[in-house]
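Please review the protein record below. Let me know how this chain folds according to its tokens.
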Amino acid sequence: MDYLTLMLFDLIKWTTALFLVVDPLGNVPVFIALTKNMSENQRKKTFQSAIVTGLIVLLLFVFAGQQILLLFGISLSSFMVAGGLLLLIISIKLLISGSWQDYSISSESIGVVPIGFPLLVGPGAITTTILILQSSGFLVTIFSVLITFVTVWLTLKYVNPIFKFLGKEGSLVVARLMAMFIAAIAIEYIVQGVKSLF
């Protein structure tokens, strides 16, 4: 397998993993609930703030993730185990409640907190981004983040039609289905990390 084919394979694999963790489709009911009292213009500005916030946070870890690991003396194997456990906890919460955290915040900065961080970009997304960086390098990580955020932008742009199409029950099914995939990814991280450690 040549370098470009391997890179493309990694890009598809990691973009899918990051998309599942960020989970914009599964979070559609939460986006609707958090912005239900806003005008169309306010909602648009809120979602723009969310996208910019999430993208900046993830890019920060793309450019400084390795330095952060070095600073704390953390090996990739240890980080994979810890990240896998964290993702597993998040997936279990998603499976049980349909959301990994409850939010009742209403403020001018709702696009930044909680939608941008930690709803879109939380511990799971940060963990996954650092793992991509360590496993597949800078280019794959950058493109994975950018492609994921294009899909986030599209989801937020068409959040009302998506919610109407899926319905409340359909959105909950999507959220739990995504949670199953996140759990599988988490187990894979833990297994690979433990193998490397021992």
